[in-house]
Design brief:
Elements: H1 2-5, H2 26-35, E1 50-51, H3 63-69, H4 80-93, E2 97-101, H5 104-115, E3 121-124, H6 129-137, E4 141-144, H7 165-175, E5 183-186, H8 199-212, E6 216-219, H9 223-233, H10 242-250, E7 255-259, E8 270-274, H11 277-290, H12 301-314, H13 317-336, E9 349-353, H14 354-357, H15 367-379, E10 381-382, E11 384-386, H16 388-391, E12 407-411, H17 419-434, E13 442-446, E14 457-460
Parallel strand pairs: 1-10, 3-4, 5-6, 6-7
Antiparallel strand pairs: 2-8, 7-8, 9-12, 11-12, 13-14
Helix pairs in contact: 2-15, 3-12, 4-12, 5-6, 5-11, 9-10, 13-17, 15-17
The structure holds ligand P70.
Ligand P70 binds at residues 54, 56, 103-105, 128-131, 186, 190, 219, 221, 259, 261, 270.
């Protein structure tokens, strides 16, 4: 509590340009919600007051990044901004070769197509929606090898993003190393509540897979946030810079997929980075089919410049401390009010535990979806479901997957909202908690085939 009463530091920036916010009346919000089929992804942004749907592509760029936008070299081939981005990726992330992509899933598509043979397995520290889908589309099967405590929102261990080495070893023993395409390791595991992986664990995964000749592909999307947790929680790295830690994390892998829209403080962009020349050559070949030439990968020159400069800013200690500090501030407030959230507090978001928030609903009532809808109705704040709707259906049985975690994610864009917005958000959640007994479950009335959470529609259950 002490850290929320008194602040010894503030955001390491001041605001130069503002964007007005507007708030609809409750009556208007009810109409907008109905029109959106009770799915916050289907709301119009203009109808949202504080937008905590995602931290993806919603960041505020700095004057340094905007200045870089004016230096975009919009050549079809060989843009100088590509070479700047390549140099920054090599310096901070440490991989040899770079293939830019329009965003993270573009890189996931490339690496899945290149490294997965139909029938192979891809173990990882909890699924991520787009990552798993690309693995499945390439004929692979994702296997969750995250530590058990990741599925428990009340377990306070500091590195709930860790790989369970026993689970990984058991899988390799069962199917044989040749049937494991590679291991995916994600930093600050999104679906677990933004929980970090330790460097000790990353090194152990590296040692185990090396024994079997299995590659490790790192999802570096929020590696900088993970590095902050390593610095503050893993004693051996307390004196390392964020940049050094990120570098060391990446050194435990063969390549990385990256959504630049998070850590890297841009509105669009991503990349695949890889050490193996053969894989690089293939990725460079494939990228022209799906994204664009290998020196722009679906991005404008100015976008690559903004991302190159974003790398430089992302690893500044003051920046990352303030970013994670803001999320922590909201989380501590909610905890003090007795609201059930995933703990420890994650890097990019506060995750409300919908199971404990709405104990009168079953998972078939889509409790997290209902809670996100109700939050919007009550306050105009937009959050995201991360539960049974996001988990989708099992490929083999066609039945819903029932994830242990049924969460609503309040995701904080970087450098966008003020502490007053944080207070308003906490107050809205507190008010919702007071009236939680009145929140009803939902019924799904339309279900898309892929990544259903984006476009599914719902109606309140009768009664
Ligand atoms: C979010 C976004 C994107 C993401 C990620 C990790 C750990 C890869 C990606 C893909 C956007 C999103 C995506 C799917 C469902 C909901 C929201 N996460 N790895 O809000 O990157 O979006 O650039 O293709 O978190 O968490 P990209």
């Amino acid at each position: 509590m002490t850290n929320i009463k008194k602040r010894a530091w503030a955001e390491p920036f001041k605001i130069k340009m503002v964007e007005p916010l507007k708030m609809l009346s409750r009556h208007e919000r009810a109409g907008a919600l109905r029109e959106a089929g009770f799915n916050t992804f289907l709301l119009r942004s203009e109808d949202v007051y504080i937008d905590l749907l995602t931290d993806s592509g919603t960041n505020a760029m700095s004057d340094y990044q905007w200045a870089g936008m004016m230096l975009g070299d919009e050549a079809y081939a060989g843009s100088r901004n590509y070479y700047h981005l390549e140099a920054m990726v090599q310096r901070v992330y440490g991989y040899k070769y770079l293939v830019p992509t329009h965003q993270g899933r573009g890189a996931e598509n490339l690496i899945s197509k290149i490294l997965i043979k139909p029938g192979q397995y891809v173990p990882g520290n909890m699924y991520f929606t787009t990552t798993r889908l690309h693995q499945e589309l390439a004929g692979g099967t994702f296997v969750d090898v995250i530590v058990d405590e990741a599925h428990d929102s009340t377990d306070l261990r500091p590195f709930k993003g860790n790989v369970d080495l026993g689970k990984l070893e058991a899988l390799i023993a069962k199917v044989g190393a040749a049937k494991v395409a590679y291991v995916t390791v994600a930093a600050t595991v999104n679906m677990a509540g933004g929980q970090p992986i330790s460097l000790e664990n990353l090194k152990a995964v590296r040692a185990l897979t090396a024994k079997h000749g299995i590659k490790v592909i790192f999802d570096a999307t929020r590696a900088v946030e993970n590095a902050y947790f390593i610095k503050t929680r893993e004693a051996a790295y307390a004196d390392w810079t964020i940049e050094q830690i990120v570098h060391e994390m990446c050194a435990q892998s063969d390549g990385a997929t990256m959504s630049g829209k998070k850590d890297l403080l841009v509105n669009i962009g991503g990349f695949l980075a890889i050490n193996d020349l053969d894989v690089f050559e293939e990725a460079r070949n494939l990228v022209v089919v799906y994204e664009g030439l290998h020196t722009y990968g679906g991005l404008a020159g100015r976008d690559m410049e903004a991302m190159a400069r974003g790398i430089e800013e992302a690893v500044q200690y003051d920046h990352i401390r303030a970013r994670i500090g803001q999320v922590e501030y909201v989380g501590e407030r909610l905890k003090a009010s007795g609201i059930p959230i995933v703990e420890p507090i994650g890097g990019h978001a506060i995750f409300l535990d919908a199971r404990r928030f709405l104990p009168h609903l079953t998972q078939d009532d889509f409790p997290a979806q209902a809670l996100a809808a109700e939050l919007y109705l009550e306050s105009g704040i937009r959050a995201m479901e991360r539960g049974i709707v996001s988990a989708g259906r099992d490929d083999a049985t066609g039945k819903h997957r029932y994830p242990k975690l049924e969460l609503v994610r309040l995701t904080f864009p970087r450098r966008v909202y003020t502490q007053a917005h944080c207070d308003v958000t906490a107050e809205a959640v507190e008010a919702l908690y007071e009236s939680r007994a009145e929140i009803r479950g939902l019924e799904m009335t339309y279900e898309p085939k892929y990544l259903r959470f984006f476009q599914a529609r719902f109606e309140p259950k009768a009664g």
